[in-house]
Amino acid sequence: MIFDGKAFKLIPLEDGIVELQFDLQGESVNKFSMQAMAELGDALDILESHPGLSGLLFSSAKEVFIVGADINEFGKVFAGGTDAVKAYNGKTNALFSRLEDLPVPTVVAINGYCLGGGMEISLACDFRILSHKAKIGLPETKLGIIPGWGGTVRLPRLAGLDVAIDWIASGKDQRPDAALRAGVADGVVAPEKLHDAAIKVLRDAISGSLPYLPRRQLKKSPLRINDTEGLLAFEGAKMFIKGQAGRHYPAPVAAVQSMQNGAKLERDAALAVETELFAELAQGPVAESLVGLFLNDQLLGKKAKSFIKSAPGEVKKAAVLGAGIMGGGIAYQSAYKGTPVVMKDIATQGLDLGMAEAAKLLNKQVTRGRIDTAKMAEVLNRIQPTLSYEGFGAVDIVVEAVVENPNIKHAVLTEVEKHLSDTAVLCSNTSTISIDFLAEPLQRPQNFCGMHFFNPVHAMPLVEVIRGTHTSDSAVATTVAYASALGKKPVVVKDCPGFLVNRVLFPYFAGFAMLLRDGADFQKVDKVMERWGWPMGPAYLLDVVGIDTGVHAESVMAEGFPDRMGKSFKAASDVLFEAGRLGQKNEKGFYNYAPDKKGKPQKVPTEESYELLKPHCAALRDFTDEDIIARMMIPMVTEMARCLEEGIVASVAEADMALVYGLGFPPFRGGVFRWIDQAGAKVIAEMASSCETLGPLYQLTPGLQKIVETGQTYYPKAEV
Ligand SMILES: NC(=O)c1ccc[n+]([C@@H]2O[C@H](COP(=O)([O-])OP(=O)(O)OC[C@H]3O[C@@H](n4cnc5c(N)ncnc54)[C@H](O)[C@@H]3O)[C@@H](O)[C@H]2O)c1
Fold first, then answer.
1. Are 591 and 540 in contact (CB under 8 A)?
2. Where in this chain does the record put each 3-hydroxyacyl-CoA dehydrogenase NAD binding domain (predicted)?
3. pLDDT recorded at residue 717
4. 329 alpha carbon – ligand 1 mean position (Å)
């Protein structure tokens, strides 16, 4: 061993070849922490003066090759300001360029995930050999930044502009075959052959039969593209990407700009250009939000893992009650992810619909080439439709998803409990009804909790796991484990009407109802909130959820929190509901709906709803965008703060993730608490006081008031 550090080893192989092996101690994956970087510098010092060095093999001793920079360190680096960020990137670029400039050929053997900085160091090597199991990519734009360690410089020079723009702007992982086609991989082999194959390429390069210097030169020279071609390609790409990413996400366009600004420059000057743009984005709120979401997501993952560890056992078999929209969706997801599931309904028609829905989703996957028909049959076979309780004695968990009616739910839950083993967990997918209330007639309330999915189940990542007063730790752990096995992001919350997500969504709808009552145009409100970043405005969202569902849930919330959510006027939703306008489901809500060429319902504005609303609302008048945003968002803010203060949700991180994963809260804003921090609690307080006559939903909670007075933030400020 030439060098044996905490992250890197230098292992002498035959004939002057040295292996630089990355194996970060105490971590399951390799990542470029500052400490690892410093050690890479030590290893390069040794290599540069190593007598008889003939070639370098770069490898990983872990299953994952390198996941990239240590994102936990970003907060500290970014908080240091532009110069600190530039110094951080400059240091790394110097290391990677030293690797690229070694006087011997270099080959990297990529065995698993090779992302971000991992891919960037690989691009600094002369040749890249990938295992079939490898995945490579530059996901930085998803974090609101651009690749900052040479990705926008070396990738276009190596693979061409089209590939570089596509890979970097999308941030997607790429499979080995795509890397080979793009010229990023020089070979793809079976995992067990990776080491030998990489050594073979290295020996060919050492012997001169595979020239490596022209390749190196290509990466260090200006981009080979003429001015006219370049102008067309860059300007066209920026326009297209801007349209796709939207105005709230500047990083993908900045990545193309970096390639453009550096196109005529040699490597080092082009790297400096990239660093400039990186530093600018790193200082912006979007990067702060998106990096924050990444770290919050890691926290959710850690919490889920610790629940899974404490669960009494794996969920080997599950059951759902009700084969409707939600029950059918849960059964599909369970079967698709490998847990067999019994699906019970009271009507054959319901079961047929549930199975048809699963088949439709699977057919789509087959058409897209993601699965074959054999896999489709295997998944469908894992769903056992039934009208009886046969087989329920053998299931580990049951999710009740029958109609949202407390009496029916009580009847169904007490009935199913009789057929379950003493240890089976029973959950309800209720949207609003208190878990403690539902547990009242149960024999084993300790085995009961909420498991709240979002519609459509296969697409929405969040599952709220609701702990009732009597729910045992092991029931929560089993439910979290099952949600994780379904590929979902579980957030554990305490019981209350609406739990976390609906409890903060309905105040937002209450703000909307008051706006319409006072003469706002719902189309304008939709436009303003969509521009603010929501995937759909409140009127459109209510149409999609179902006006009837909205009205019903709103009454449950009003009963639960009469002081804040009870109302003394007829809301627009009530008017539409009474007129039989139920939303997208019957093609009439705030908007009318007509199927497009693909059969997807498209909204069409209609005078009919305006006419219906007229007698119940003030005459239409203009509200400024600021007014609309304040009146819509402050109720959500105050209710979120209240949920945190009451311990309904354990942390600001989980609260923000629940809204992003459950409601599509604009990711670039990072969640409600991140938004408060970024806008400044004082500004939020001013927004609230501008609407204080609208009632208690616009009053700051004691905790939020304290944040305003002390100048604190919800997220800890990063220390430099
Ligand atoms: N639809 C949503 O967007 C959504 C989202 C989250 C949670 N939820 C909740 O999920 C639950 C189900 O909602 P849905 O939209 O799937 O309803 P749905 O009307 O589509 O389906 C309900 C199904 O339950 C069946 N059913 C009724 N009584 C039954 C019984 N005794 N035993 C077995 N099956 C029975 C019905 O035949 C029907 O197939 C509700 O509690 C709802 O609040 C719905």
1. yes
2. 317-496
3. 87
4. 11
What stretch of H or E contains 256? helix 251-262
Which residues, judged by CB distance below 6 Å to any ligand atom, belong to the binding site of ligand 1?
A: 321-327, 344-347, 350, 401-404, 408, 412, 429-431, 453-455
* Atom number, ligand 1, closest to the C-alpha of residue 455: 3
- The answer to whether the beta carbons of residues 466 and 450 sit under 8 Å apart is yes
The reply to whether 196 and 68 lie within a common domain is: yes
Output the CA torsion sign for 468, 474, 475, 476: positive
- Whether residue 133 lies inside any domain: the answer is yes
In terms of residues, how long is the chain? 720
Atom 21 of ligand 1, residue of closest alpha carbon: 324
Instruction: Take atom 39 of ligand 1 and give the residue whose Cα is closest.
Output: 324
Residue range of the domain that includes 700: 502-710
Q: What is the CATH number of the domain that holds 457?
A: 3.40.50.720
Q: Domain for residue 301, yes or no?
A: no
pLDDT, tens only, 593-640: 999 998 899 999 999 999 999 999 999 999 999 999 999 999 999 999
Q: Residue 474: which residues within 8 A CB-CB, separation 6 or more?
A: 310, 311, 312
- Does one domain contain both 323 and 266? no
Residues of the chain scoring pLDDT < 70:
none
**Which atom of ligand 1 sits closest to the CA of residue 326?**
16
pLDDT at 720: 73
Ligand 1 geometric centre to CA of 560 (Å): 22
Q: What is the full DSSP assignment across 494-553?
A: E-STTTTHHHHHHHHHHHHHHHHHTT--HHHHHHHHHHHT-SS-HHHHHHHH-HHHHHHH
pLDDT the model gives residue 271:
98
Domain match, 491 and 518 both = no
Residue 538: predicted pLDDT = 98
What is the per-residue pLDDT for 719? 78
Q: Are 630 and 665 in contact (CB under 8 A)?
A: no
E strands present in 338-411: 341-344, 383-386, 397-400
Catalytic annotation, residues: 452
400 and 510 belong to one structural domain: no
Which of 321, 388, 431, 435 for a ligand 1 pocket mutation test, highest count of atoms within 8 Å of Cβ? 431
Number of domains in the chain: 3
Of 345, 543, 555, the residue with max ligand 1 atoms within 8 A of its CB, to mutate for a pocket test, comes to: 345
- To 10 degrees, the CA torsion angle through 92, 96, 98, 103? 170
